[in-house]
Design a protein that fits this description.
The chain has about 90 residues and is of the alpha+beta class. The chain contains two helices and four strands, in the order H-H-E-E-E-E. The chain starts with a helix and ends with a strand.
Length: about 90
């Protein structure tokens, strides 16, 4: 999972459309706490965490203090879409 989050630093994506996350039965979803802990371990701070359709979505700051909006697959926690938000 560490590699997954390392890729965030390499993704300067500035898209504005909603993320298209795959649909998984809720009983297969990974725990929200698992994702929150993994992000905290990588130096992210979460201002807002929510479920957006079939995605986990976070608004917060990366380890460099830059604002981010990231959508995750609810089962695999793979990054579906990442946006840098200009201050």
């Amino acid at each position: 999972m560490r590699i997954l989050f390392a890729l965030l630093a390499l993704l300067p994506i500035y898209a504005h459309a909603a993320a298209d996350c795959p649909v998984h039965p809720k009983e297969e979803w990974a725990s929200e706490d698992t994702l929150k802990k993994a992000l905290a371990d990588e130096g992210y701070t979460i201002k807002k965490f929510k479920v957006d359709g079939n995605c986990y979505e976070i608004y917060g700051r990366n380890k460099d203090g830059k604002k981010v909006e990231i959508y995750f697959d609810t089962k695999t926690l793979a990054i579906i879409k990442a946006e840098g938000i200009k201050d």
